[in-house]
Design a protein that fits this description.
This protein is α+β, with helices and mostly antiparallel strands. The protein contains eight helices and four strands, in the order H-E-H-E-H-H-H-E-H-H-H-E. It has helices spanning 5-13, 47-57, 75-84, 87-93, 107-116, 137-143, 148-153, 156-173; strands at residues 34-38, 63-69, 120-132, 182-194. It has a four-stranded mixed beta sheet with strand order 1-2-4-3. It holds the Pfam family Methyltransf_11.
Length: 200
Amino acid sequence: MDTSPEMVAAARERGIDASVRDLREWKPKPDTDVVVSNAALHWVPEHADLLVRWAGQLPDRSWIAVQIPGNFETPSHAAVRAVARREHYAKTLKDIPFRVGAVVQPPAHYANLLMDAGCRVDAWETTYLHQLTGEHPVLEWITGTALVPVRERLDDAGWEQFREELIPLLDDAYPTRADGTTIFPFRRVFIVAEVGGAAG
């Protein structure tokens, strides 16, 4: 499931039974074996509670496996928020729920919650150093992630202007190396939990 009709359509083209749904409304079926979430839970403010709820609803010996990007404190997100606050965008973008601060917790936080829920847990985090290439590569990277709600609110001219104002902030925060690459750190938290595994 996904909240993006485009993502769901792409999945269906590959033979996947996908639907447009809100994760918060989903409930595991009694015969669910595995729940996998990839780069979705960081958009759900109460995602830690959601994981615990799933653990309580899933049958013993089922699994939860999630990957959660945790980058709201990074310069790229700070730059987007800074431009969005400028006077000529503030009214149009004021109700976008930009996430601020430590939205995604350290792995131990999730491990403790799920262990208290009776799970056997393996949790860790990795910061990948993506080596991007091209002109303004960080802008291109976040266009498909952090900038999606901004693009949805702005007309074509406003969108191009927003990008132009964002470019110097991103280029300053993520300078291009002499070899033409730009290093872009990207943090991800991974959690694998066996439901009921703590007792076994």
